[in-house]
Amino acid sequence: MSDPIEAAIFEKLAKADPKNVGGKSIEPADVAKELQPEQWQRMLPKVKATALGLMRQGKLTITKKGKVVDPNNFRGVIRLRLPTEAETAAALAALPPVESSDDDFD
């Protein structure tokens, strides 16, 4: 994991839910404060954007008031948590199909 924001998100989640039982969530602001304590407000949009990308990959779930948000349409205060197996499967099913090329480079 080369992205420091991504790493910080998963580190915070590991601390919040050390047994990986699920259901424990964190605030994006906590991640931003850990990365840049003095200017965390500037980091917050980057943390949210990274979380959104991770949600679309099925690696993270974004919730609002305990309910999973639509990744294409949400606003306001959110929380981050690890996804259930069903949420991961749904996110991966929503990804566009990978185009395969018939060209062989022999």
TrEMBL record:
Pfam family, one: DUF3253
Source species, domain of life: Bacteria
UniProt-recorded name of the protein: DUF3253 domain-containing protein
Gene source species: Brevundimonas naejangsanensis
